[in-house]
Write a structure and sequence with these properties.
The protein has 248 residues and is an alpha+beta fold. The protein has a domain at 4-54 and 62-141 and 206-243. The chain has helices spanning 4-20, 90-99, 132-139, 229-240, 242-245, and strands spanning 47-58, 65-74, 77-83, 103-109, 114-119, 124-129, 143-154, 157-167, 173-181, 187-195, 198-208, 224-226. A twelve-stranded mixed sheet has the order 7-8-9-10-11-1-2-3-4-5-6-12, with helices on one face. Helix 1 (4-20) packs across helix 4. The protein is globular, with a radius of gyration of 20 Å.
Length: 248
């Protein structure tokens, strides 16, 4: 017979591993440093894949937070693939991997106002509503002004370094420093912004200006949809630890 206390304890441990060790709880609406406003910086580059890194520096933190990812875009939709073990301590990383929770994919669908959080190791995903501010930002037209700051080379690409000011229809502004590759249709190889005391820098490499498969931007076939992340965790524990769940 399955022991209910043992099962609840396992569910709690899994939740702490996933939500408490720096993983997806921080990114409930998507990966760090990326939202529909920032996608405007890609200009006419609406279909591509690239490797990326986000670096978040804050005066309150001793060391910058770095997150590696694989990033794809197709006509406003985005897909970000991350390895969560690189953000956790060694113990948490090994447990996440054992539970199949080490890899996560975020799929942003601004047209549907949805964000999918997909776990390939679990063949499951969670669908959440995109925050209204982000959904509204995706539909806005921004006035963009550029000021040249010189030239630099990023990942062997000659870039024009620009200060970019984006102004929305209500007069709100966002400022960025953007490095546009002149040989890649002005693709932003790097952009940087500072808000609320934190500086976020996103850099790209291995850019391929090719149209990715549209299937990558929707729910994976044969994956189970869960109502919440906790439901996914509980189902995973029950499937993967039958012996432990039945122990005293």
């Amino acid at each position: 017979m399955k022991h209910p206390f043992a099962l609840k304890r396992l569910v709690l441990v899994a939740a702490v591993i996933l939500l408490g060790h720096g993983a997806s709880a921080q990114f409930a609406s998507g990966p760090p440093g990326m939202n529909p406003t920032l996608t405007k910086l890609f200009g006419k580059n609406t279909a591509f894949t690239a490797a990326g890194q986000v670096v978040v520096e804050s005066g309150k933190q001793g060391q910058p937070v770095k997150v590696d990812m694989k990033f794809s875009m197709l006509d406003g939709k985005t897909r970000t693939e991350m390895d969560l073990t690189k953000m956790a301590d060694p113990h948490g990383a090994s447990q996440m991997k054992a539970m199949g929770m080490d890899q996560v994919v975020f799929i942003s669908q601004p047209d549907q106002k949805l964000v999918l959080q997909v776990y390939p190791g679990l063949h499951g995903y969670v669908e959440t509503a995109m925050p209204e501010t982000e959904a509204t930002a995706a539909a806005k037209d921004y006035k963009m002004e550029k000021t040249s700051l010189g030239k630099e080379t990023i990942d062997a690409h000659a870039c024009e370094k620009n200060k970019v000011t984006m102004t929305d229809d209500k007069g709100g502004t966002h400022e960025f420093i953007v490095w546009n590759a002149t040989d890649l249709k002005d693709f932003p190889m790097r952009f940087q912004t500072t808000e609320q005391g934190s500086t976020v820098t996103i850099s790209y490499k291995d850019v391929k200006l090719e149209k990715p498969d549209a299937k990558l931007f929707g729910p994976p076939a044969n994956y189970t949809k869960y109502d919440s992340q906790m439901d996914l965790i509980q189902a995973t524990v029950m499937k993967r630890t039958p012996a432990a769940a039945g122990s005293k």
